Amino acid sequence: MSELRYPFLDLKRVNESYFKEFSEIAEKAIGSGRYIGGEAVDSFNRHLALVCNAPHAIGVSNGLDALRLIFEAYKCMGMLCEHDEVIVAANTYIASILAITHAGLTPVLVDPDESTFNLSAKGIKSALTHRTRAILLVDLYGRINWDNQIRQIVSDHSLIVIEDAAQAIGAESEAEGMYKSHKAGAIGHAGALSFYPTKNIGALGDAGAVVTHDQKLASTVRALANYGSDRRYHNIHIGFNCRLDPLQAEFLNIKLRGLESVSRRRIDRANIYSNLIINPLVRKPDHPINPEESVWHQYVVRIDADKRERFVDHLRSHGIATDIHYPTPPHLQPCYRRQFAGQSFPLTERLAAECVSLPMGDYLNANDLSFISSAINSFK
Ligand SMILES: *Cc1c(COP(=O)(O)O)cnc(C)c1O
User: Fold this and answer.
1) Which residue in 161, 264, 333, 369 has a CA-CA distance of 20 to 30 Å to 278?
2) DSSP secondary structure string, 305-321?
3) How far is the CA of 322 from the centre of ligand 1 (A)?
4) pTM listed for this prediction
5) Which percentage of the chain shows pLDDT scores above 90?
6) Shortest-distance atom of ligand 1 to CA 64
7) How many C-beta neighbours within 10 Å does residue 340 have?
8) Does ligand 1 have an atom closer than 6 angstroms to the CB of 167?
């Protein structure tokens, strides 16, 4: 990977401008004598709540745990029960599905809309049953999965709306969320964010957060993430240890300040790719009408399945790494073969065979983008 001129994502380049600040804050944290919780985590929580325009944000260990804590908290609150159905896009990352099944809930998979790669109102409607209690909306590739039609369905059917915003921090929906926030993570009743190093805002290790408008959910998640205790040595739930590391909170507090610029630069870069790539064999992603609806966690093109390997090799021969998000959808993974036996999701399967993610990062400059686009255009 590293011998390539363009690795898929150059994390060193992503974080380079923060090295000095990170070192100083790390040194202070090492000398502080306090290594769990504390002001760093509290200030991260306040900062993130502001960013998402929601009353509560709770830093946790990672994005998967954020999702799991939300589902577990709804079970503690008696609002979800084992075997309740949760509608979710079939083309999502496995973590979305893991969180649902870890909680003993039943994922009901639906093919996405071909233009957005996300769930459509029509798709959601087709999957509703008398056991549907919740919907997990995944903002795939950084594009927010929300509009007024979806809003109407969830209110008609009183669904709990959980957002997997792991890829979408900073995105802003045109339509108002359930509680008036337009921001990714704060669209539904609760949202999960990830700060895995490759995400738009990445820590230097694992980190995640739960964002919610529901005070009861917030206090339940807080307790569940800390052994189920509401105060020291008093356990009201059968909890977990999913706390956010304060050192990661320090790094994230620094990086969150740059969120707007990161999002703007990613939108610019996606626009440049879409202007420069003109190869008829390569299908470019649709852009949302309102550009702020996507923060382009990935820029994903499609190419006929039988040409994909040759396309990837062609780019590699030009020193350009690509990735595939995701080569095998959850319902075809060995661990879920039984759960989804006999089910097929034709569009999801086709996307898995055709998609290619191009290098994307706010550090890419005009030369980088024009070099990569030329290589794409020279593919025959
Ligand atoms: C990254 C990601 C997660 C999980 O986040 P982690 O911090 O890696 O646990 C969940 N859902 C989606 C869509 C993701 O991209």
Assistant:
1) 264
2) HHHHHHHHHHHHHTTB-
3) 19
4) 0.98
5) 99
6) 9
7) 18
8) yes
**What's the gap in Å between 365 CA and the centre of ligand 1?**
27
Mean pLDDT across the chain: 97
Does ligand 1 come within 6 angstroms of the Cβ of 357? Answer: no
For residue 47 the two structure tokens come to 């900062």
pLDDT score of 1? 47
Angle between helices 19-32 and 246-256 (to 10 degrees): 150
Strand positions, DSSP E, the chain? 56-60, 85-89, 106-110, 132-138, 160-164, 190-194, 208-212, 229-231, 234-235, 299-302, 355-358
Give me the residues of the chain with pLDDT under 70, please: 1-2
* Test site for ligand 1: of 196, 240, 245, 360, most ligand atoms within 8 A of the Cβ: 196
Tokens of 111: 């093919």
Report the nearest atom of ligand 1 relative to the CA of 62. Answer: 7
Q: Dump pLDDT digits (tens) for 316-372.
A: 999 999 999 999 999 999 999 999 999 999 999 999 999 999 999 999 999 999 999
Q: Which atom of ligand 1 is nearest to the CA of 207?
A: 7
What are the distances in angstroms from CA 365 to CA 73, 171, 255? Answer: 43, 22, 20
Ligand 1 centroid from CA 100, angstroms = 13
Q: What integer pLDDT is reported at residue 55 of this predicted model?
A: 98
CA-wise closest residue to 52 among 190, 155, 146:
190
CA of 280 to the centre of ligand 1 (A): 32
